[in-house]
Amino acid sequence: MSLPTNIEIAQNAKLKPIKEIANDLGLTEEDIEPYGRYKAKIKPEVYKKLKTKEDGKIIIVTAITPTRNGEGKTTMSIGLAQAFGKLNKKAIVVLRQPSLGPVFGVKGGACGAGYAQVLPMEDINIHFTGDLHAITAAHDLLTSAMENSINRKNRDDIDIHTVMWKRVIDIESRTLRKIVVGLGGENNGIPYESGFEITTASEIAAIHALSSDLMELKQKMSEITVAYNSKGLPVKASNFNVVGAMAILMKDAVKPNLVQTIENTPAIIHGGPFANIAHGCPSLAAIKTAQKLADYVILEPGFGADLGMEKFCNIASRYGGFKPGVVVIVATIKALKRHGGMKYKDLNEPNTDAVKKGLPMLWKMVENAHHFGLHPVICMNHFPKDSQEEIDTVLNWAKEKNIPAAFTDTVMKGGIGGIELANLVFKELEKPNNFQYLYIDEASIEEKIRIIAKKMYGASDIRLTDEARKALKKIEKTGLNKLPICMAKTPLSLTADEDIQGLPEEDYVLPIVNLKPSTGAGFIVAYCGDINTMPGEPSHPAFEDMDIDEDGRIKGLY
Question: For residues 262 and 119, is the Cβ–Cβ distance under 8 A?
Fold first, then answer.
């Protein structure tokens, strides 16, 4: 059975007015700010009003280290929430906001697929409620303030060779990665090397997702380190008297966005930092609000259990005070075969041996959940070309390992296709867990990185380059040792090389090429291998298939 396209399904869905979705959660018209008929902001007063209410249980939906186009983790998150609805459980799915870069680039939209989508998908994928535009404006306003200080006799004594604060835009453009600004003579500024990052790589995007309210966001933005002065001391955003204006730009962006799934299950979509560059989690404001409004909060950090899940547990949970209950690990036959050594072009061919060779990679993700004291449930996202022999291979393996597992088909069937998975999750939630962080605050920066590399990736050790050592000394000098670590690494491999599939060799050493303090967000970024913060367009970008007709009906968005 062939499905209509995602956008065709979305455009034919019957949405409820957002006021009804809010009402189902116990919210009144005074609690929300509608953005049209089907989107709304939830006012900060809602959390304050419900602060003493018991928190709903958190279910993390993560994945095996993915292939290039992902494994359907968002789809499974949405489908699981819809399955909870079918079982008359009060649940909210909490997701990150899509970035325009991937929407128009290689991955397309980020609203799910088939009959497991969040709606209105056209709005969510494009401008939504303007949060990312606000982040872009606030970031570039700080850039302007910093450069104005440099141009006005450099009143903050900024060493232009140490400037870390660039510009951002939410469109992919490899030619903007490295630029020189200030050309054209004295009236046009002082020349120095700079560049553009994608908006979701901005530290303000990370701060937005790590703030519970506007005042916390404002305080964190004031702590952003943009450069160092001639004495080697940090120059922060607070130096430029611009933080109040930045907060004005962010005043609405800090409020969580309420929408719905295709089956009218409530969804909160808020916060969008990339998980291979930043911490890749929905906002603290969204998660905390959802916990007060529902009994179950199904949330999706970015990429696999080695990246997004690790960062949710080590960073977001630290700052939000969260104690997740269960980890759902999404995997596919395709991903198992890829990690089993198959080339991309051959992944549609049945190959049980390759599936078996890829299973140690799935076991590594299970181990990663165990490292945090959490119970894992395996969710196999079912695709039409999966052979029964391949499916049985995975299910028999999971049974031998005593890991709950279900093949799930929410794309074709919606919530009904996730009932088996939902029941497994409920069963695991009943068991006590011993959630713990991977490392203690007092551990050194180098030791924190080593623990992540060894436990999450299976590396034998880490190696800091001379540049990373130099950065480490500067970070230690400014007293930032107790901050958590945010690994910046390819999401396609457990190593720093995206072409290396499966588990690393026993003697693999993870290269750390640089360290950067994100003093506003409150973490140290460790760059692993060759990674950049501005993606480039592929040879066939998604935007080439998009169009809109005279009636405003969009085509080609997926």
Answer: yes
Preceding peptide of 120 cis, ω within 30°: yes
The separation between the first and the last C-alpha atoms of the chain, rounded to the nearest angstrom, is: 19
Q: Give how far Cα 277 sits from Cα of 10, 36, 197, 206, Å.
A: 31, 33, 11, 10
> What whole-number distance in Å separates Cα of residue 509 and Cα of residue 159?
34
| CA distance linking residue 501 with residue 479, whole number of Å | 38
Q: Tell me which DSSP letter residue 257 carries.
A: E
What pLDDT was estimated at residue 70? 87
Is the predicted pLDDT of residue 250 greater than 90, yes or no?
yes
Q: Going from the N-terminus, what domains does the chain have, and what CATH number goes with each?
A: 27-128+254-428 (3.40.50.300), 131-250 (3.30.1510.10), 445-528 (3.10.410.10)
CB 220, CB 158: distance < 8 Å: no
pLDDT averaged over every residue in the chain: 95
**Strand ranges (DSSP E) for 203-264?**
225-228, 234-236, 257-261
pLDDT of residue 482: 93
Number of helices followed by number of strands (H, E) in the chain = 20, 24
Amino acid at 530: D
Smallest CA-to-CA distance from 62 within 289, 262, 310, 260 is with 310
State the Cα angle at 554 between 548 and 558, rounded to 5°.
130
| pLDDT at position 468 | 97
More confident residue, 248 or 274: 248
- Beta-bridge partners for 512: 464, 528
> Which of 18-22, 69-73, 80-84, 198-202 is predicted with the least confidence, judged by mean pLDDT?
69-73
- Nearest one of 252, 257, 269, 268 to 214, comparing CA atoms: 252
Residue type, 272: G
